[in-house]
Structure prediction request, 215 residues.
Amino acid sequence: MAGSENQKFCLQEVLDSFQLCLSPNKEVYVEHYVAGWRGLVKFLNSLGSVFGFISKDAVSKIQILVNFLNSENGSQYATVQSMVKFELDNKLVDVDKKGICPESGCRTLLRLHRALRWLELFLECLRTSKEDDKTSVMCREAYNESLAQHHPWVVRKAAGMAFFALPGRPTFFEVMNVGPPEQVVAILGKAVPLISEVYLITEELYLKHNLLDLP
Ligand SMILES: CCCCCCCC/C=C\CCCCCCCC(=O)N[C@@H](COP(=O)(O)O)[C@H](O)/C=C/CCCCCCCCCCCCC
Prediction:
């Protein structure tokens, strides 16, 4: 999968990954979760270097999780549920403040989980938008309602600047690479509920274990 972030983006592939994310008993497979994010990073990379700092952060978090998956304890990281159990049982999570496990799987996935809420809000806005609606406005509103609450001023400022560089809705839809706008809207109509389900399952799990504020 190395270097796959530079390949051409396809929205259908992202949809497929999030579809594969859920096991029959509604556990979240980490492998497909990170594959979904890898696909999204391809999209981000196609928008230009102004989004490089965001892409870099996402890639480094994806890589941390991939390293866990490929480690000797890889099987414990098969699902988000097994990862949480394994790391908590073995005291591998810094719960109150950063200490000996600053890059635990739980903490790393939490950052992507928060970003998934942004994605859900943004894609829903995009799905219901009109041709001349501004992607930068949709993106900013989704960001302010989700991720921004977890970012310091300097990151919020940099993200806000980057949003101005987003292309218009028609270009956005073209880059999604699934056909005419009606087709994009139809795929978004399938993607948003899936992403929402993955988000909710993870949110409930993290809430149950009091992990939603990991430093
Ligand atoms: C279906 C196609 C249309 C949508 C395509 C969207 C493509 C988005 C791809 C990736 C999104 C980036 C995910 C960012 C993860 C951020 C995780 C995070 O919160 N990291 C911060 C905290 O980490 P720690 O310091 O605690 O380790 C970190 O400080 C963040 C740094 C970078 C800034 C993140 C800003 C995020 C803005 C929201 C994404 C905007 C992308 C716009 C493109 C449409």
The chain has a mean pLDDT of 94. The CA atoms of residues 5 and 97 lie 32 Å apart.
